[in-house]
Amino acid sequence: MNILEVKNLSKNYNGFKAVKEINFSLEKGEIFGFLGPNGAGKTTTINMLTGLARPSSGAIQIAGEDGIKNIKKVQRIIGIVPDESNLYEEMNGFDNLVFCASLYGMGKKQREERASRLLEQFGLANTGKKLFKAYSKGMKRKLTIAAGIIHEPQILFLDEPTTGIDVENARQIRRLIQTLNHQGTAIFLTTHYIEEAERLCHRIGFIVEGEIVKIGKTIDLLQEAQKEYIMEFTLENEVEPLKEPIQKTFPGIHVYTIDYFHLRIGSPEKIDLMPFMKFFAEEKCLVREARIIRPSLEEVFVKVTGIEIDRLKKEKEGEKK
Amino acid sequence: MKKYIAFWSILGKDMKTYYLKPPNISWGIIFPFAWTLMFFLRSEGAVEIREILPGVMSLAVLFGTTSMLSVTITFERRSRSFERLLLAPISLNLLMLAKTSGAIIFGILNALLPVIIASLVIDLSGINWMSAILSIIFIAVTSTFLGLFISVSASEVFEAQTFSNFVRFPMMFLGGLFLPLERLPLFLRFLSYLLPLTYGVDILKTAINGNGIIPSGISFLVLVGFSLFLFLMSINNIQKRWIY
């Protein structure tokens, strides 16, 4: 059963179409991943779903309510964790949670109990009295997630929850997301860590330039990707100028660059290494390494978005700094 | 949902986080104190102190309210914590009333200081206290909504403070605070009647010295009109600019 349903949702800013008639749904108890490069329309979509932006056209249904007309009613049952912590720097962790609970009309005893329980659950019980501004990035992130679920929402919107934090905290957050989901919370997750989406999400939608270009169950997307054979070459030369000649010489294969020195070749049939080695030798390119890749969701992402994973990560990390 | 809990929490949070912080308490005390002292020292006697009391009280309210809103609203908007409030299941009207109530209370308290100082040096008998208190409340509400209107039109704290000065300083000279309206040239007098503070000061003058020139009932109505207009315009601006 769908708890969120989006139909032909669009957003225009002064003639620029940020989101173009997208359609998707979120089932009860599901984790839905929303992936795409910077500026693809992920945050605009979240803003429309949560009431921070007004859709230009389309419809949103959340738990049977009109998510545009009755947004204030809908906001009672949704939780939002933005890509940057937006709690109060001058308040301590406990007071921040208690304040957030009060915004949902919770009584004093109930909100204090809930805040204490969440601090415990998120491993922040010892730092509850510390000012938010003194928290580390990982702690801030965890407290922001705790604030997002203080009112026990039916749907949680998580925008890049593990970006810019250390490995251990990221792992803890991923575990918390799974726990929340097991407790019945439907989760709408945007992330640029493909492996995170692969590990957590039941279904994934890819958005590029405001359009959903692919949507499906993670397992199906993976199976589809694994129908292809992939070989990765590491060269000593720049790989970009070689893309076109390779494509011309070996029709029927799919070529994409990973970064300056790495390119990948995908084919529906097994790849014979020798013709490629010969090609690179003729092009006077030195091959440092050639290896067979087990296709993952990363390949699906690269194929549908046309963006290199490394570039995506660097852009995101740069933004956070 | 118990919306009053959200209202009181927002108000309480602002009071604790902003208004009751030592720099703001000292600003709230020192600023009106300095104004009061400056004007009272320039006065030649008890009569003159009583004459300028409405102006000093109004100034204390005006500066107290408009200065704080640039912090509680523009700063929170900049740091994105305001988004958290916009995402709460309470109406925008209730949210903005909660956000401005702190400034209204702060403004009213600011107006008390000149009265306390004046009571130490002159006889304050004969004042229509009911009317004076009501006018202070109305001035505080209107000034707060004026500050709100400025704050939601600005993106940065310094912008909000600069815009505030463009509005506050003309009001100081044209609002009849220290220069009687009847002494102003005709075209400036016309401008005076476009400023909300003119009406607030006039009620105070009537209440304290009995020398206001506009019937108090009309002034109250004009202040209500200004308040409604500024509040609704601010809400409209938030809906257009922040919920884009």
Q: How would you explain this protein's 3D organization?
A:
The complex is a heterodimer of chains A (321) and B (244). Helices cover 37% and strands 27% of the residues of chain A. With 321 residues, chain A is α/β, with parallel strands linked by helices. Chain A has two domains: 216 residues, P-loop containing nucleotide triphosphate hydrolases (Rossmann fold, 3-Layer(aba) Sandwich); 98 residues, Alpha-Beta Plaits, CATH 3.30.70. In chain A, the strands form three sheets. In chain A, strands 6-7-8-3-9-10 form a six-stranded mixed sheet, with helices on both faces. In chain A, strands 2-1-4-5 form a four-stranded antiparallel sheet. Chain A has a four-stranded antiparallel sheet with strand order 12-13-11-14, covered by helices on one side. In chain A, strand 1 and strand 2 form a beta hairpin. In chain A, helix 3 runs parallel beside helix 5. Chain A is elongated. Chain B is an all-alpha fold and 244 residues long. Chain B has one domain. Chain B is 81% helix and 0% strand. In chain B, helix 2 runs antiparallel to helix 3, helix 3 runs antiparallel to helix 7 and helix 3 runs antiparallel to helix 9. Chain B is globular and about 55 Å long. The model of chain B has no long low-confidence stretch (mean pLDDT 88). The interface between A and B is medium-sized, with 28 and 24 residues.
Q: Low-confidence stretches of chain A at least 5 residues in length (pLDDT < 50)?
A: none
CATH-scheme architecture of the largest domain in chain A:
3-Layer(aba) Sandwich
* Overall 3D shape of chain A: elongated
Q: Structural class, judged by helices and strands of chain A?
A: alpha/beta
Quickly name the level 1 CATH class of the largest domain in chain A.
Answer: Alpha Beta
Silhouette of chain B: globular
Largest sheet of chain A: 6 strands, mixed
Secondary-structure content class of chain B: mainly alpha
Q: How many distinct folded domains of chain B?
A: 1
Number of strands of chain A: 14
SSE run of chain B:
HHHHHHHHHH
